[in-house]
Amino acid sequence: MFGWCGKILKIDLSSKKYxxxxxxxxxxxxxxxxxxxxxxxxxxxITLNWHDPDMxxxxxxxxxxxxLSPTSGRMTVMSKSPLTGTVGDSSVGxxxxxxxKKAGFDGIIITGKSFNSxxxxxxxxxxxxxxxxxxxxxxxxxxxxxxxxxxxxxxxxPAAENDVLFxxxxxxxxxxxxxxxxxxxxxxxxxxxxxxxxxxxxxxxDKESLKKAREDIFRLTFASPVLMGELxxxxxxxxxxxxxxxxxxxxxxxxxxxxxxNNAYLMNAYTYKKKFNPKKGGCQGCHIxxxxxxxxxxxxxxxxxxxxxxxxxxNNNISVVMEANKICNEMGMDTISAGATIACYMEISNKKLSxxxxxxxxxxxxxxxxxxxxxxxxxFRFAESKGKxxxxxxxxxxxxxxxxxxxxxxMALAYATSTRGGCHLRSYPISHEILRKPVSTDRFTFxxxxxxxxxxxxxxxIIDSLTACKFIFFAASLEEFSKVYxxxxxxxxxxxxxxxxxxxxYYNEKIMNSLNGFTKKDDDLPSRFFKYxxxxxxxxxxxxxxxxxxxxxxxxxxxIRELDINGIPTKEKTRELELE
Amino acid sequence: xxxxxxxxxxxxxxxxxxxxxxxxxxxxxxxxxxxxxNKTTNMLEKLFKILNIxxxxxxxxxxxxxxxxxxxxxxxxxxxxxxxxxxxxxLHELPYTRDFNIQNIANILKERKSLIIPxxxxxxxxxxxxxxxxxxxxxxxxxxxxKFFSDYLKHKKDKTITNEEEKIFNKIALMINPYPEFxxxxxxxxxxxxxxxxxxxxxxxxxxKSKLVDSYFGNISYLIDNIIYISQTGSSLDELYGYIDPCxxxxxxxxxxxxxxxxxxxxxxxxxxxxxxxxxxxxxxSVILSMDCNRRDIxxxxxxxxxxxxxxxxxxxxxxxxxxxxxxxxxxxxxxxPAIKGKRGVIxxxxxxFTACKKDFNEAFKNLLSIEKMCKQEYFKRAL
Lengths: 580, 384
Prior knowledge:
The structure holds two protein chains of two kinds. Chain A is α+β, with helices and mostly antiparallel strands. Helix content of chain A is about 40%, strand content about 10%. Chain A has a domain at about 10-195: Aldehyde Ferredoxin Oxidoreductase,  A, domain 1. In chain A, a hairpin with a 4-residue loop joins strand 1 (about 10) and strand 2 (about 15-20). Chain B folds into two domains: about 1-175, Class II aldolase/adducin N-terminal domain (L-fuculose-1-phosphate Aldolase, 3-Layer(aba) Sandwich); about 195-385, Class II aldolase/adducin N-terminal domain (L-fuculose-1-phosphate Aldolase, 3-Layer(aba) Sandwich). In chain B, about 40% of the residues lie in helices and about 15% in strands. By secondary structure, chain B is an alpha+beta fold. Chain B is built from 13 helices and 15 strands. Chains A and B meet through helix 7, helix 8, helix 10, helix 20 and helix 21 of A and helix 4, helix 5, helix 6 and helix 9 of B.
């Protein structure tokens, strides 16, 4: 078999036994890998409670991983989200995916529950279960220091142990499977860490053809200012977006009550670069290298983290942003949700927080102490418990990232239709509404956006299944990646064939959500965006979103996605996509 | 969407890519909208069902593109391989088919952005906007034009030219319109921060109006107080209002992350010379002539001329340098800026011309125009 290993490791933590599944080429062709294949294995269990021992936790790579394919170092982690109750998944970088393929597996399915805190150590086909109780209560970096020689690592920290609903799984100390609370899913199984290393190679069907496709992709990425330009993410990390998003009047500020941040120019990517002189790194198999760390090994915050720990909570101190990021990373919790939940708390309590207040609250969240116990449940649950649901800026209970939807109406629709809640990664209309790729679209209109969002959701679903990095698609497209896929697997395919697989994979998630009762009422935005304008200036007006237009566009999206008028998958489409 | 359809229909005509009423342009959100309907649109609608796209342009190209297509498709096997930078980077290759059958068309468009159907036209598509389809259509026309004239010159030198090729050449040579004279004046510099936007807009528009470039092929910048005011990536030189990014030369703001992919090349010119204005376009005969090399068959880098040409090449006084778009290991930001010192401009192999000057765009435009005129003249001197 080319591309895939054809083997999936199925582990039952209750019995500490494992088995090998061989999905067969037809399943692999249909669901590809990563997000697609994980979704296939999750679907039959999706109505269980997220902490039911039978609820699988899935870690899946794709056929391009551990090959010469550009940006192929990623994998998907999936389960039912503790935070949202939707399908919960996260595409994550680092080297875990590579190592898993080297060990000979396309994915791991973990079910059951260990009585004691345990670890799983994978060394090629040797699978070992360990007692991990000595790692309890340790921070992420402390845990990694103790297990770092065992290969690539996936660990959870104090946040997951303390039931924080937005706790992460941390890969290789610096990469985060975040947003959905998957750290809590991991921890609920009594699992503390997984390590993996291997010596195998992934077979490539046509190496010469792969080299040619790779060169085409490299040429495109070098021609992309967003990726490889001197102001792009290769030069500054995702922090490069900070100036632009503020400049376009869509930086969420003061819990989304404003959309410009007065001190943005003092807290931008350039300032971090000057102050910390970070070194460049990145995921295995990537030439873009957007990860920056200080000499002491601290991560420079990603764009969303920078934005939410500054503008969203009115913090003007760059050191506080660094410290907040460090604490979230040590605790293993999602920075977007943490920042947004603190912003919600500030609004409801009508408090201004100092830098030390912010740091103290983050620690309390991670250790579930005092107010942290309440805030660890996320903004939605906190605001609801205080009788102020309008202060939680969430979709399907997930906190929104750092793009105010009033400044990009495609993003407004994308937040609403995302299968995992308030997320910018299911569809990323910022690419055309702001970054002008593949071409620019009018960010202040809903016209045409329903179909664009649907196509982009399909696209991102296939990217997360191959598995590749979404960033590279600012420059390349499936036109080039279909050549990579065919070169690696030997399976004739085209851009449109892959997009069709993406449609199937995303529709499968719509089906899973509908099985858990999600309908049109959940595909909505916080009322704030329809009632109040953003921060306008002489050049840019940021009006409130027209609710009428929003609803009309959402209904158009349902027609295009072939859902019924309540946003529920239809039998006909389910059959057409062979998802019965 | 109707406005966009009309906009790109007009652009196709104004750029000389199609006749006025030739294009069929369709967009799909919930419903398909066409600029007009006929039997062909009924057929093309099926493409929207087969492909996950939101816009289509289908049109017979205007002359001389139509004649060139007829010739190139007769002499190529299923796919045309132009060697200019645009094709190399963005289109890769140009497939064609004589089978005007919708499933066949769909199968080819599943893999590539464009399809040429001899005697019918060119079909292109977009996934977010008809603008993508327009850009691709424009790129295909540019690529086949450059390929035809490049091949002709090569065949002439090789003495492999056919009667038909000669006949076609003679026919389309008569269709080439002369470039205008520079008998006007652009805004006088130096510019301040208020005037610079207007100056850039004016220079961009005149460059397009003079048919020196198609609107998507080029970029432009001006330096004031260590800030580079530069056109955004993918912006049209004739529609620059609102699409200029101010980029501090010390990179102290990343707001210009949307700036042209040639920002680094512009910056390097400003750092290495005392110029204040830069104009870059892809005028066709400069591109064609840059690829005409007598040493090609004996050079050890013969298939890598665009990145590794080891020779100092010139068209009269204008240097020709290798280099790719952007910031890669063979990026033109390394090769072009040193070559432009003391010169009227530089031609980048298979790509286009950069001109730079000290005060405003008068000289930059004049040089771009005169270099292209010179290349055109030189081309016909070599070809005849």
